[in-house]
Amino acid sequence: MVTTNPVPRFPDGFLWGVSTSAHQIEGAVDEREPSVWDVFTAEPGRVRDGSTAAVACDHVRRHGEDVALLAGLGVDAYRFSVSWPRVRARGGLDFYDRLVDDLCAAGVRPVPTLFHWDLPAGLDWRERDTAERFAAYVSEVVGRLGDRVTKWITLNEPAEHTLLGHALGIHAPGLKLLFDALPVAHHQLLAHGLAVRALRAGGADDIGIANSHGPTWPASEDPADVEAADFHDLLLNRLFADPLLLGRYPDGIDALMPGDVAADLQVISEPLDWYGINYYAPTRVGAPQGTETDFGGIRMPAELPFSVREISGRPVTDFGWPVVPEALTEVLTAFRDRYGDRLPPVVITENGCSYEGVDDPERIAYLDGHVRALHRALEAGVDVRGYFVWSLLDNFEWAEGFARRFGLVHVDFATQRRTPKASYAWFRELLREQRS
Ligand code: FCB
Questions:
Q1: Is residue 157 annotated as a catalytic residue, yes or no?
Q2: Rounded to the nearest whole angstrom, what is the distance from the C-alpha of residue 222 to the centroid of ligand 1?
Q3: Strands, E assignment, 322-431
Q4: Does the annotation mark 397 as catalytic?
Q5: Closest-CA residue to 17 (of 367, 396, 418)
Q6: What is the 221 CA–ligand 1 centroid distance (Å)?
Q7: Residue 399, Cα to own-chain centre: how many angstroms?
Q8: Which of 355, 398, 400, 408 to probe ligand 1 with, by most ligand atoms within 8 A of CB?
Q9: Would the CB of 37 count as within 6 Å of ligand 1?
Q10: Which of 4, 28, 134, 198 ranks highest by number of CB atoms within 10 Å?
């Protein structure tokens, strides 16, 4: 095992956890309704290795083993997602009821995300009433689990779900709407605000969102590059943070959104108890180049008003994502500077990397570097309250299928055998040290 200097001490009560999502681990596809991801993965050529998540980590059947892995790791909290298509099936909430009981019995705090991209097939985020239906489903979930679950996450990464799923067509539902995908962002944000209200009505008082954010670095000081980078920052960061934290869309985007946008923004900006950030890597952006560009294996079309450039001189993960821990400090201090008092306490709801192997020194180095970078943000005065590693288990990594392994625990998908990696032992040790 790789040994490192002790990580500096985080404040008492800091929440250490790991994350997963329903579609990526659960399997038991016959016990729920289909989602847009089932439809998408059934289409040839959509997923790199041709796989589907019909079995995935078989977590619905093996959740006892997975809760034991969480308890063995010693995390305070477990972020998982509730599958809306499973809740719609008869008895669907029973599984989450048992999971929550098991987590509580193991001393691990359940932190459910209510939507992590697996929209029931037949629903569509271009339709406003999807947001209202979402709120009704959220009421049902809080009614059933709210006596034991105290911390809630509304949505996971509406930015990626909009961009990858609806603008570029590389994730489900596979739509290539480019900028016509903006209503999809608005309806998810509205769904978030309605969900906050539904959760509060159900007695919840510790509510956040998991938005993906990262610094955007201009490729040069050339004004064309700076302008393109600002636009990318607007799409990834401000479009999804400004409405929540400031109650307005940036740069006149409200004119492009559907419905009574001013009234919706009142709902969207319902106060949050904390703000979740999923961080993986920064993006270097320049002026458009008239050709497709590569963004961590994703083909970005030539029509976009920016192009993604390589960040050189850094190690990269198996996904090709650069490893830049200090950009985590940067995104946090930038958020504090940008939003000031409007930014509630922050929780890192995802951070991690894909590497092969059970002996995974690169993952340990990645996590170690990012935990230290997080501590530097605390020292700089950012109110950070928690850190969740993505992910507990190797799992179904969306359009990459099983080709990317993000877990602290290795999964042999032929046998479902779980093997804790060296990084699992490293994280367990970090948690022990933090509490000693
Ligand atoms: C995030 C997703 C998560 C996982 C990681 C690697 O964008 O929220 O489900 O795929 O990336």
A1: yes
A2: 32
A3: 346-350, 384-390, 409-412, 417-420
A4: no
A5: 367
A6: 31
A7: 15
A8: 398
A9: no
A10: 134
- 8 in Cβ contact with 372 (< 8 Å): yes
Q: Does 307 sit in the ligand 1 pocket, CB within 6 Å?
A: no
Is the beta carbon of 157 within 6 A of some atom in ligand 1?
A: yes
* Cα-to-centroid distance, 157 and ligand 1 (Å): 8
What's the CA-to-centroid distance between 436 and ligand 1, angstroms? 32
Q: What is the pLDDT of residues 357-393, one digit of tens each?
A: 999 999 999 999 999 999 999 999 999 999 999 999 9
Closest CA to 18 of 357, 366, 411, 348: 348
Ligand 1 close to Cβ of residue 212 (< 6 A): yes
Distance between CA 304 and CA 289 in Å, rounded?
9
Structure tokens at 280: 């993986």
Tens digit of pLDDT for each residue in 272-317? Answer: 999 999 999 999 999 999 888 887 777 788 889 999 999 999 999 9
Residue nearest to atom 4 of ligand 1 (CA): 397
DSSP code of residue 8? P
Q: Catalytic pick from 270, 330, 350, 397?
A: 350
Per-residue pLDDT reduced to its tens digit, 236-265: 999 999 999 999 999 999 999 999 999 999
pLDDT in tens, 125-180: 999 999 999 999 999 999 999 999 999 999 999 999 999 999 999 999 999 999 99
Contacts of 8 (CB under 8 A, 6+ apart): 372, 375
Which CATH code fits 15-435? 3.20.20.80
Domain borders along the chain are 15-435
